[in-house]
Each structure stands twice: as C-alpha cells, then as structure tokens.
Design a protein that fits this description.
- The structure holds 2 protein chains of 2 kinds.
- Chain A is of the alpha/beta class.
- Helices cover about 30% and strands about 25% of the residues of chain A.
- Chain A contains 6 helices and 9 strands; from the N terminus they run βββαββαβαααβαββ.
- Chain A starts with 6 loop residues before the first strand and ends with a strand.
- Chain B is built from 9 helices and no strands.
- Classes of the chains: A alpha/beta, B mainly alpha.
- At the A-B interface, helix 2 and helix 3 of A face helix 1, helix 4 and helix 5 of B.
Chain lengths: ~210, ~220
Amino acid sequence: MSKPSTSLFEATKLECWRGDRCLFSELDLALAAGEALQVVGPNGCGKTTLLRAVCGLTRAERGTFIFRGAPLDGSPETFRSELVYIGHENGLKSELTALENLRALRDIAAQRRELSLQAALKRVGLEGFEDRPVRTLSSGQRRRVALARLLIAQATLWLLDEPFTALDQAGARLVNVLVEQHLNAGGGIIFTSHIPLALTKGSPRQIMLST
Amino acid sequence: MRAFVAVTRRDLLLAVRRRSEIANPLLFMLIVISLFPLGISPAPETLRLIAPGIIWVVALLSVLLTLESMFRADFDDGSLEQMLVSPHPLALLVTAKIAAHWLVTGLPLLLVSPLLGALTHLNAATTVVLAASLALGTPVLSFVGAIGVALTVGLRRGGALLSLLVLPLYIPTLIFGANAVSAVMDGLPYHGQLMMLGAFLLFSLALAPLAAAAALRISMN
C-alpha cells in the first residue's frame, strides 16, 4: 500500500432489532474513500436493515457512526447531503414522467451536479423515454430512472440496496461502470447484492451477516 | 424553499393526473348535503337550522376521506424514504405535503361553499361567514390530520384507527366553525369564533408539521 487510505465512514458496535429478533449486534464496519463494501448473507439476515440504519431510516439500538472522522449524532444534515440511498422501492410516482420524477427527487435531495436531467436519463439508456409516465415503463427501466439519481447527485456515499434488481445485462454493466467511476473519484459505496460485482481492482470487500 | 416547491408541485401534478382525487371529495360532499333535505325535510326553516352543523360535519368527513392519501402512496413507493434521508428538515417537506393536500381538498370545498349555502337556503351574509370559517378551519383539518396519517401509515389497515385518532381532534374546529355560522344567522357576534379558528390555524401551523415529522420517523422505523 503506497498511500494510507482515508476513512470515509465507520460504524462501531452496531446492534439492530426487527420486532423482537436481534438481527445483528457488535457489528463493526469501516469504509475507506474509494472503496466498495458488499453486504452479503441469506434472506432475512438484515442486509436492508443495515443499510437503513446507516442512512438513519431505522434506529440502531446501539452503536456509533463516524463520517469523515466526526461522530454523527447532533446534525445529520451534512451527512445526508453527501448520501444517496436507493432502496428496494425506487421512489418513483407512476403517474409522473421519468423527467418529472427525477427533477422532484433531485430537488428533495438538494444535490446537484452540472449534468442535466436529460443527460442523466440518456446515460442510463432512457433516451426517448423522458416524457413517458413511469407507469408505462418496465421494471428494469424504472430501476434505471432511480439509478440516474446517482449521476445527478453530488454525493460521496452511495447506499444501494440490490442495485441489480430487474436490470438486464447491459444495465448491470452500466451499474458496474458507474460504481467504478464513483470509486475512482474517491467515493464510497455500501451495497447489498447476491451477484458478485466485478471491478477492475478485484472484487469488493464483503461483510457477511448470518441469521 | 426549492425542496418545498418541489414537493408541493409534485403532489399537485399528481392530483391533476389523477383527477378523481380532486373530484371525489367534492362530489361526496355535494351528494351527502343534498341527502339531508330528502331525509329530514325540505322546509327552508328546518334546513337553515341544521345547515351550519351538517356542512361542517360533511366537510370534516370529506377531508377525512382524503387524508390517508397524504402519505400512503409515498410510503408504498419509497418516496417517503427519500424525504426522510433528505438533508432538508422533514417538517418543511411535511408542510409542503400538507399545503398540497389543502389545495387539493380544502380549497375546492371553499370554492363550492356558495353552492352549499344555496342548497341549504342560507342568505348571502351567512354564506360569507360560512366561507370564512371554512377558509380558516379546513387547513386546520389538513394539519391535524397529517399527524394522524403519519402515525398510522406504517400499519396495514390504519383507516379505521385513523378516524378514531383524528375525529376527536377535529371537535374544536367543528364547534367553532359551525357556531360562527349559526351565530351570524341569529344576528349574534361571530368574530370571536372566527378568531378562535384563526388561533387554531396558527397553532397547528406551528406544531403539527413537527409532530407529523416525528411520527413519520417512528412509522418508518
């Protein structure tokens, strides 16, 4: 290792419950800048819960989060402005068009990059579908609309829950390329997937959860 | 501010695309109010006597009908998650949703209030006070209702529970709203009642978004 990797995000002694079942406890994870972390494990082991706990949707019973060396307790706003979370649900309104959906999500997330919404949709292969209601798109195309948020967001940390769901091979390759670019730019990614991610630098580090 | 506009605009756009969302509560209100002359008596004196009460009760029920749509679809399609992880204060985004809800449900009620007055033989002065009481009171219904929806949105069948939670909280608005209209009919002062409604509005504007935001965080947990 030539350069010391800077820590982007850390969680220590994390404990999460779902109902009366303890999903995991004493879980430590650390993510360096430019690193991807894959959460693996059988169905129901708490992969989604782990991602939701990191972005603050689910309350962790115990544990501390550290972002860029500073603990996250008082003001999560700075952390949230550096975060993109793409969950199981795409967060799209079926009556609105792809463009309208993307615009609303961009403004709610308060993140912007120079890339225009049209360019982002073109990049994810939805040129010509910008003004179609999302209702008329296939589930793979909807996933692509959600993934277009990664392109317009100026975020450091990506939290992706099963990003490959419903995507065809070209879509999966697209995710690979986006991930690779983001890592090269010094970002970090925590994702859940049952599909191994093929990066040029080798497979990402894995964290195993068990039931 | 940009996020506030984005949320309101998205919800209004959705309401325009699903026109039934605007039309249904209005039609519900008109039909129910036209049932009273049929069921009780078409005599103008009787109608005038019960008009303030029935208009307000029906307004309350038609708002209740639409309340659940405030967060339910967002909860199901993941939009709510995106609002919760937004760096903007959640209470601000919730206020934007409440504003959109009022524009879609409360404002149309307000606009048809002259028609409601005519259906129940109210005179012009009374109809003006009716409109004023609805203008001040219906936003309170949206604000207070938002807390109830936020609390029940995580439950599979929250509908009945929602009515049980929210209707008791609507009682003060109902009393002062209906009473302002009866007072003007009896030639009594009605400004006090309207001021009370205004006070409810300011109170709920200040506190309901915070309470609803906290409730949403619990519901999403």
